Recover the amino acids of this structure.
DNA sequence: TATGAATGAGAATTCATTCAT
DNA sequence: TATGAATGAATTCTCATTCAT
């Protein structure tokens, strides 16, 4: 709401390219997460970033490329954290526990990630497909999960023949769906799903489910 | 007294309130599914329905209430099909198989349902919460799933202590996530996920997973 | 908000041409008074009249002619009441008192009349000019006011040379402006203008003003 | 360091926030005056202002706030002119003459003001009430009129006990009603009311009326 | 006389994006 | 690097009015 021309250009940001870009990215992340790609507003992103709208276009050509950048960052971030998880160091059952807990905790700590992916899928992964960077970020977890399964099988703890990709998707899905659809689910079931207790219950259900399947008696 | 000769109206749309409403709803369903609530265009819905744009507002006050109506219909539809599924008639293991297969098949046959739910969750179930129909939408499957689990436990086939709501959400999640996120997943994994073979593989993985967990050795 | 086609045509109005027309007119009067010509909605008028919108067009070609009809009625009504006022029967000073009080009371009892006139003037009396009926309704008060002034002058009670049309307009203006602009005036002056006391004060001020001018010492 | 050569921008509107806002305001004033709030068209305002429609929303959030701004300007303007009128400098009778003449002339010179107020009253002073400026809009004339009356009473020229607010409203009403309702009045009375002669006649009638009331014999 | 269904032309407002400095 | 001014193309929604029975 500009009302008067402020002749004194006083309050311009100290010039700092990196900082501006970071601010824009994080503002955009919030905005896209909250409203989806279509619902996000460039105006609001600028406001959130404390930056002139024009500057967004200066750094990120347009809305879609901004979204791509945000998406890349989101993937980079989760891949980075996934890398911390040293599944190969621990025994198979514990490794699976950790993987499930990590997935669950990450999604809870980063609800934006879920919304972002939903948006991207609504758009048929259009941005992802044209981003070489994001595509190179194949999850390191697949490899280590394969290793874990292998070790488990060899030590006769796990059942054989489990496809690590299927399992990875299943673990993600068990957590993702619950959190991403929490609003409709809790409305339909009339049940609080995000309190501390339900959260723990969900985590242990998921763990039981996966281990109950994997572990041989 | 005989009716007037029913002239078949040539170019103009036959006056039929019910039909118009149905056409609008089904056009809106497609549009919302394809573009989400925010991305949907009233113009396109009118065009898809072969109806004057104004007529949409005549029957459904505005975009949001149209979305609510679409959502209600979608829920009614899936609930109706769920009711067909007589899980109580078959033995527990078969019942679980059927439930998983039904969920999988329904989501594949009705991809709009997934997108619709994603949109609704992006909007924090705003429409669902204000829909009086929402109450009656509680899935009948929860009850019958509870019954199935019960029978399974009593006949010592299933493990005890499984929360039917958690299990229901898990089954849904296993199917939902795979299908709803298929674009990003197949891009990231560089793997076709929707061909006939991957579909069967996913279904059997889900079934193995759930039954592997439920069934006692 | 039609939602379903009511196959049973049950609740149609008993057919009564006069009554319908009257209902429409009075609904339109309210609507035009409340929102002005531009702000009035045919839908709301139909609703207010408890009549199908189409019926309005059946009786009154379109919005403007409906407005004209309403205006004509309003003029007829005030002229009718003015005729009741037998100024020639009472002595001049009392006659003036009565005229002022009548004007004041009529405007208070018929606030729609003021809004209607405002609308009509916004439209440069477009409707009035094409209504031969309304134009024939020259106020009877002008004649009797002329008579009153005449009698007053002859009996040396009133000053001479007063133009009855000017005086008539003045009396109307004193009341009209106060009432028609009551919202802005009371906002600006921070003063209640429509309570019982302010009303009496205004009436006596107007009377004092006019008689103070007319009556010779 | 010298400024860049100030190229006179050829076809495109010179960038000048203040000027644009002024142009919009004055175009809006005309439009609102001519058609009322409801009848005014944003398109036409843009055109009148020689400005892109979008710019109106850039500076004035929406139609109503634009109307509010116009109203505030109109009040500021009349208040400014009222302040020029130094009623305290001249003797009471002359002061009253000046006040009446000023009111009359101002309304004639600014017919938009009347229409604007009519619109605002149709909307129950909605805009005025939410304008913080409204407070400061109290007419300075009330104070000086009170002073004039006081002086007149003390020098035994004027009658006592006259409420300056009532008198102010009366003077305004005498002029306002005549001008604001000129279209219906001249149609009804079949009399030209705005020619040079009728104007003078009205002014002298108003002056006679008010002074005839105020001045003691 | 009476009504529900349907519409075209417009209305306000929104939004990503570009211009000029 | 940074910004305020400005815009064209939509987009939702409104409204008087007509169609068909």
């Amino acid at each position: 709401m500009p009302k008067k021309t402020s002749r004194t250009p006083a309050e311009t940001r100290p010039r700092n390219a990196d900082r501006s870009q970071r601010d824009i990215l994080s503002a955009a992340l919030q905005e896209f997460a909250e409203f989806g790609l279509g619902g996000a507003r460039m105006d609001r992103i600028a406001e959130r970033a404390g930056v002139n709208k024009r500057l967004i276009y200066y750094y990120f050509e347009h809305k879609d490329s901004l979204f791509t950048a945000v998406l890349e960052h989101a993937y980079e971030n989760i891949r980075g954290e996934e890398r911390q998880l040293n599944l190969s160091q621990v025994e198979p059952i514990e490794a699976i526990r950790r993987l499930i807990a990590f997935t669950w905790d990450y999604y809870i700590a980063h609800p934006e990630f879920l919304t972002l992916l939903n948006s991207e899928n609504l758009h048929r992964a259009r941005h992802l497909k044209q981003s070489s960077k994001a595509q190179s970020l194949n999850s390191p977890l697949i490899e280590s999960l394969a290793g874990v399964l292998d070790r488990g099988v060899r030590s006769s703890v796990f059942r054989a023949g489990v496809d690590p990709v299927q399992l990875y998707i299943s673990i993600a899905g068990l957590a993702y769906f619950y959190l991403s659809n929490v609003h409709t689910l809790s409305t339909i079931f009339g049940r609080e799903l995000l309190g501390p207790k339900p959260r723990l219950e969900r985590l242990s259900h998921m763990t039981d489910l996966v281990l109950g399947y994997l572990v041989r008696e």
In short: The first helix of chain A runs from residue 17 to 39. The two ends of chain A are 68 Å apart (CA to CA). Residues 1-10 of chain A have pLDDT under 50 and may be disordered.
